[in-house]
Inverse folding.
């Protein structure tokens, strides 16, 4: 869906989205240096297709870098640190930018992930079911991650 909304100059000859070089560099650095909450979230919640869907870490989309992105669900999961308390306007504009492109954003605070992982897992599982229903998706099981949380 996102590919069709993007202008031709934003796509490669194979129709993949073209990345901004600066965002590619930022993404690589962020993947190598995750925050403690991002590391726990990846290891315990969504890494290795634990939720029946493949998520990518630090995925450049347009002019944004998404913490965790699932292309099947058009879903962005953001793990927000304290600095986001002062960026509410920016976060809202970013979420709207992604929503226009069909991407839903779910946000969790660092302390939720670090201190209440079970609640985050339950909430995320529910939101994924809602997203499946909205997009009329039947989850497909990958070879690597056939179990549920």
């Amino acid at each position: 869906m996102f590919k069709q909304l993007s202008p031709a100059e934003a796509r490669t000859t194979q129709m993949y989205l073209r990345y901004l070089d600066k965002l590619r560099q930022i993404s690589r650095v962020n993947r190598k240096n995750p925050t403690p909450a991002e590391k726990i979230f990846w290891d315990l919640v969504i890494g290795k297709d634990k939720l029946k869907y493949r998520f990518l870490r630090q995925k450049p989309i347009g002019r944004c870098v998404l913490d965790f992105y699932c292309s099947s669900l058009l879903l962005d999961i953001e793990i927000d640190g304290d600095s986001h308390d002062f960026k509410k306007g920016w976060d809202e504009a970013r979420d709207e930018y992604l929503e226009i492109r069909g991407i839903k954003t779910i946000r969790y605070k660092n302390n939720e992930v670090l201190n209440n992982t079970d609640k985050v897992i339950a909430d995320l599982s529910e939101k994924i079911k809602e997203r499946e229903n909205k997009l009329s998706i039947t989850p497909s099981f990958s070879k690597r991650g056939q179990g549920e949380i």
